[in-house]
Amino acid sequence: MHCRAYFLLERDFQELKENNFKGITAFPVSEDLMEWGANIEGLQNTFWHGLFFQLTIHFTSQYNFVPPVVKFITIPFHPNVDQNTGRVCIDFLDDPEKWNTNYTLSSILLALQVMLSNPVLENPVNLEAARMLIKDESLYKQIVLRLFSQPIQWRENSLEFPKDPHKLTRSIKAVSFNDYYKTWSGIATSKATEYYRSSLLEDPNFIGEYYKQKKVELKHTKEWNLK
Fold first, then answer.
1. SS3 for 96?
2. Are the beta carbons of 100 and 92 closer than 8 angstroms?
């Protein structure tokens, strides 16, 4: 007999398929629907557009009372993504008190899509990325694009994703992450100590907020659409 979470995730999956959100796909990889794979493309009118990132989402039988664990398999160089584990560090996933039972699979993925080009720079988990973005946005863009061709991969319990090179990869001149890290490791002088992260989206209606964010992107492209 299936648990409550199973039926909620069936509902979430149906919502995702019916809305057909641009740049977002997800699929269950376990029969009990507790393990999922997902792909996210960056928003249009940002340099993240055209970059596709693989993720894993782990739900428990307590969903939707507790948030899932979300990790990037293709780890972006991003202030809100742990560069070692790929774990997304954002308040509604980190802090159970900020989680809301109105959140769904779609709203989680839409929020992460917005997060790529709208990072939370207060208490970042990746200090190198945050400080570089603040200090030199153009260089930050170059590093993101170059590292994308040889992304850091999280391999623990890795899942099988559909092999589609046109959707999941992009040919960009490669740069070794080790070389990059040696050059820029001095930027970080301390590590983030706070477990909970600052708020990204306050409104529980994530899908509505998502479209508001997209409008902001179009009106203020110079802020994050780096040249």
1. helix
2. yes
Taking residues 218-226, report their average pLDDT.
Answer: 41
Distance CA(105)–CA(16), nearest Å, equals 7
For 57, phi then psi, to 5°, come to: -130, 120
Q: pLDDT tens digit string along 71-128?
A: 999 999 999 999 999 999 999 999 889 999 999 999 999 999 999 999 999 889 999 9
Q: Which of 81, 89, 112, 200 is catalytic?
A: 89
Q: Name the β-bridge partners of 36.
A: 28, 57
List CB contacts of 35: < 8 A, sequence separation 6 or more. 28, 29, 56, 57, 58, 59, 159
- pTM of this prediction exceeds 0.85: no
Contact 135, 148 (CB under 8 A): no
Q: Which two tokens stand for residue 7?
A: 């039926």
Whether 89 is a known active-site residue: answer yes
Q: What are phi and psi of 15, to 5 degrees?
A: -60, -45
Q: Buried b / exposed e across 213-225, counting CB within 10 Å, b at 16+?
A: bbeebeeeeeebb
